[in-house]
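Dissemination and training. As part of the outreach component of the grant, students in the summer workshop were shown how a complex can be specified as a set of sequence lines and then modelled as a single object. The example used during the hands-on session is reproduced here so that future cohorts can follow it. Participants entered these lines:
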Amino acid sequence: MDQKKAGSRITIFFCQRIDVDQDVNRRPLEKELGPRIRFFPVPCSGRIEPLHLLRALEAGADKVYVVTCPEGACRYREGNIRAKKRLAYAQGLIEEIGLAKGRLELIRVPAGTQTTIVELARKLLAQEAIVGPMPPDEPGQQKQRRQI
Amino acid sequence: MRGESRLKKVLQQGSFAVTAECGPPKGAEPEAIRKKGKILKGFVDSVNVTDNQTGVVRLSSLAACMLLLQDGLDPILQMTTRDRNRIALQSDILGASALGIRNILGLSGDHQSFGNQPQAKGVFDIDSMQLIQVVRQMRDAGVILGGEQLTEPPDLFIGAVENPFADPLSYRVLRLEKKVVAGAEFIQTQSIYNLARFREWMGQVVDRGIHERVHILGGITPLKSARMAEYMRDRVAGMDIPDEIITRMKSVPGAKQREHGMAIAVEAMQALKEIKGVYGVHIMAIEWEEAVPQLVEEAGLSPRPDV
Amino acid sequence: MITAERKPLAEIKELIAPYRKVLVVGCGSCVAECAAGGEKEVGLLASALRMDARRAGRDLEIKELTLDRQCVYEFIDQLTEFIDQYEAVLSLGCGAGVQAVAEVFPKAIVLPALNTTFVGETKEAGLWIERCRGCGDCKLGFFAAVCPITNCAKGLFNGPCGGSQEGRCEVDPDTPCAWQLIITRLEESGRLDCLEKIYPPADWSRQQGRGPRRIIREDQKL
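and obtained this result:
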């Protein structure tokens, strides 16, 4: 099996309120990067569960970001607090199977900033090279497939 | 006190050992135990003192052992895991050694529901296997559970029990071996009436070489009556009393049954002397300690050897 | 599930004796499963208590209600509407349910109608057997899925004891010897060598706790 290039794939879960035009803004980047990037807009980062993060890793992401609104600015009050705790829980879980907790990262958009999801994504892409690719599966092994 | 275990010395010099059991009274009087000790002295190498046997409150084994020690006997402290947690057990192990008691027998003990305190909480913090391991570690490595160092290790000859007649039969030899691995140095078995079966068990024990790693003492309980024999067969778990023994007991009139029971016991003791891997006999004459001297003499085991 | 049994009626009557208006609250979860405290049992008990009061010439007004779960505040809140109208609450919840109700309504008098017993399985209709002691350190993987603490009367980890006879426990002939079962299962699956190692003493601090044990999950907090 080929070694993946350093930092190939990232997944970004983000609160839609960060960029009201995200639906339009992210398309060109998606086209440019193809499978290297996956965006998951959600109505509030509090909707994100540890399960989503694990599945993102399982599906091939080397790094998963959860982008939330600034502290105190969650429209639903505690959504971004829940997101932080759930991410921490998921980190604990992946550490138990030997993955670096840095593969899951919470990004809090600083208060008072205006940014598009694309600008943010490009910044993150530039940083994520530090994490490196996920450890490869054992060669010759049938890939474990999640049964639905 | 720096005495030594007589039982250990007898076994180590290759003599056939004799131990007997002694039940403490249901009261605070020291004389009861002393009296039993006097009967047994000189006829046995060491004396077991039971630990609240059957869950019935009796004068403690530790105290009774001390009384026997003072009278010049070599007591074996029986310690069950039913009534005490690991803190108390380890503490009593140190205490026993400090008092000069040199033998200990670790066992699980009868369930509290059998006794006169059925509402008591059965502790069972650790089991008999773990207890044997703990004593061994305390003695040989000088540490308690958890690894903390003792200022002085206890000096105790370590024993355990095994029942060749309990189920699952196929597992009993393996369990015996496990007790040896845990640290047992001598074993006292449940009462033997079915010699054929016991010989078979010992055959397996010898095949595995266990007899070279532990001293097995065969258990003997003289029957007082045919009724007692039937009771034990029907009501005591883990007892194998062959029909032929029952028949023999019944074939004699009531007044003669004690004598006959003694004769059967003597036969068994003599048979044990000939079985490979058996290093002694453990006589459990419950509330009939007076029978022990006669049994020992008739079995040709008196006088006891010098050590 | 958690199993429980209804206390003898004499005991329940004594508990509610000072009260004329009683709220009888059941639970639709564990105690309903073991036919002790569900909706049917609430109805049965209420009916019996009312008839008994009538025959004794005593006033007794009972409101019957069954919550989905009596140990979860969201359900207990349903009592807020009318709990003040009653002098006492007779709870058919398990011990956790009774206490949870009392915590939500600290001024209320909350009384237990059940004796909570054990964590067990429904072996067959009408038969519940204890299987778990909540030791907090599950060892079932080492004992062929037979809990030695729960199923062995002496809780041996290196059993059996000398009283095992024909697969029965010496303490209770109706009880199978747990160690016979463990050994049989291991033998049949070729794993008897698992028993060669001496199983070490348990960490009872995980069962005993320092007061009531707790589980905290930050990721579950609102």
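Chains B and A do not touch (no CB pair under 8 Å). Students were then asked to discuss how this feature might be tested experimentally.
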